[in-house]
């Protein structure tokens, strides 16, 4: 029985994993995760299990999402939460607690009949893949074509990070302005010491993987994926304007073949558009978020407004309060299913983050047959590390 098959984010969705909020912790500060906590966030310095009432509210919205999906004929699998309030200790580092399993998209990368458990860049997320073992074992037992891979397990010692990234500059605290300059210059807290990636930095479009170079994914990971999939083209994208470039799915989101919405505060630079333009892909600005602030104790920005889940080329799930985004989807010809989800945001993101593809109908297609000079293309000869 075929269980695992997905080559993109828009073909008809038939099976998916939806995360859970149970036991989720605010992890202690560590070299990479400092980046995830905005400078002015009240979460700075807070650690430990999240308040139970917020867990219950988030789980109610996650369960409702699962039900909406089932009502649309999608099989829904759920992870097994760990006791995340336990330290992670390895020969190379230790950190006081783990994180959670609300966002399977961060951990699981589905490419055709393969699922790759990402290497992960945060120490607190080193063991998170275990939450999905039950699911992956089932797929392995029932689907003879399913291949279960791991990204190289990183050491995550201090050598993997710029340990001075968050230090004061000339006696002043790091400002957002400084961070914007750094990320535009591709200077990230994660270095190129070893292969590091989170699955949610990878946008899959058939034979092409477009990967964000940011705080959680480096070029060595792109080279590793290129070697894993020699028939594919792997591209490195970056989006100046984001002081915390973590995961591509609140920045650059495909809706159907030929159409992508792009965060207007984080536009893809002109030279990186060549491959899309040469193949008649339209990149349109996403609608403005409805909210000025993310919910309390949330790692992500207000741009979770565009972190939608596409069910097929004509149908998309959008967060229910995101009025402008709902309207834009309608204008773009999509049938829109509004689903309330803001209570789940603090646990790891939006509707796309909270899900991981298992099965979408369709095959691996080449959406970019016209090749042009493409500065985003990863090759060993042009290695940037
Ligand atoms: N990293 C996703 C966002 O908060 O915009």
Please provide a written account of the structure.
It is a single chain. The chain has one domain: L-arginine/glycine Amidinotransferase, Chain A, CATH 3.75.10. The termini are far apart. The longest helix has 20 residues, at 52-71. It has a three-stranded mixed sheet with strand order 4-1-19, with helices on one face. It has a three-stranded mixed sheet with strand order 7-8-9, with no helix packed on it. A three-stranded mixed sheet has the order 10-11-12, covered by helices on one side. Helices cover 16% and strands 20% of the residues. The protein is an alpha/beta fold. The chain binds glycine. Glycine is lined by residues 246-247, 250, 300-301, 303.
Q: What does the main sheet amount to?
A: 3 strands, mixed
Q: Determine the number of helices (DSSP H or I, runs of at least 4 residues).
A: 6
Strand content: 15-25%
Terminal Cα span: 41 Å
Q: Average pLDDT value?
A: 96
Q: Return the CATH class.
A: Alpha Beta
How many strands appear in the DSSP assignment? 19
Number of domains: 1
Gyration radius over CA: 19 Å
Structural class: alpha/beta
Ions, cofactors, ligands: which are bound? glycine
**CATH homologous superfamily descriptor:** L-arginine/glycine Amidinotransferase, Chain A
Q: How helical, in percent, are the residues?
A: 10-25%
Q: Any low-confidence stretches, pLDDT <50, length ≥5? A: none
Shape: globular
Task: Write out the strand line-up for the largest beta sheet, numbering strands in chain order.
Answer: 4-1-19
Task: Write the CATH architecture name.
Answer: 5-stranded Propeller
CATH fold descriptor: L-arginine/glycine Amidinotransferase, Chain A
Order of helices and strands: EEEHEEEEEHEHEEHEEEHEEEHEE
């Amino acid at each position: 029985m075929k269980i695992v098959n997905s080559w993109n984010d828009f073909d008809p969705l038939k099976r998916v994993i939806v995360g859970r909020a149970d036991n989720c912790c605010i992890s202690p500060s560590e070299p990479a995760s400092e980046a995830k906590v905005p400078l002015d966030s009240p979460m700075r310095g807070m650690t430990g299990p999240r308040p139970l009432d917020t867990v219950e509210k988030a789980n109610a919205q996650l369960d409702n999402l699962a039900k909406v999906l089932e009502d649309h004929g999608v099989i829904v699998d759920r992870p097994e939460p760990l006791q995340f309030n336990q330290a992670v200790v390895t020969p190379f580092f230790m950190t006081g607690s783990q994180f959670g399993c609300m966002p399977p998209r961060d951990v699981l990368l589905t490419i055709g009949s393969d699922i790759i458990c990402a290497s992960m860049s945060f120490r607190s997320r080193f063991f998170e893949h275990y939450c999905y073992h039950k699911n992956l074992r089932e797929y392995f037992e029932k689907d003879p074509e399913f291949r279960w891979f791991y990204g190289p397990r990183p050491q995550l010692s201090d050598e993997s990070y710029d340990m001075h990234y968050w230090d004061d500059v000339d006696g002043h605290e790091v400002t957002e302005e400084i961070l914007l300059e750094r990320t535009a210059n591709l200077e990230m807290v994660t270095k190129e010491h070893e292969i590091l990636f989170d699955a949610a930095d990878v946008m899959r479009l058939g034979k092409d993987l477009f990967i964000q170079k940011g705080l959680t994914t480096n070029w060595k990971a792109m080279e590793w994926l290129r070697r894993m999939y020699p028939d594919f083209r792997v591209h490195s994208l970056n989006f100046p304007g984001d002081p915390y470039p973590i995961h591509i799915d609140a920045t650059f989101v495909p809706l159907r073949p030929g159409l992508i919405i792009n965060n207007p505060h984080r536009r893809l630079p002109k030279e990186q558009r060549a491959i899309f333009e040469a193949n008649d892909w339209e990149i349109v600005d996403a609608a403005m978020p409805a909210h000025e602030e993310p919910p309390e104790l949330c790692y992500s920005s207000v741009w979770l407004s565009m972190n939608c889940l596409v069910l097929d080329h004509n149908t998309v799930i959008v967060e229910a309060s995101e009025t402008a985004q709902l309207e834009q989807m309608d204008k773009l010809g999509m049938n829109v299913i509004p689903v309330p989800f803001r209570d789940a945001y603090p646990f790891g993101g939006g509707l796309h983050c909270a899900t991981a593809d298992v099965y979408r109908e369709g095959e691996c297609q080449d959406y970019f047959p016209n090749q042009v000079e493409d500065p985003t293309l990863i090759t060993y000869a042009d290695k940037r590390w």
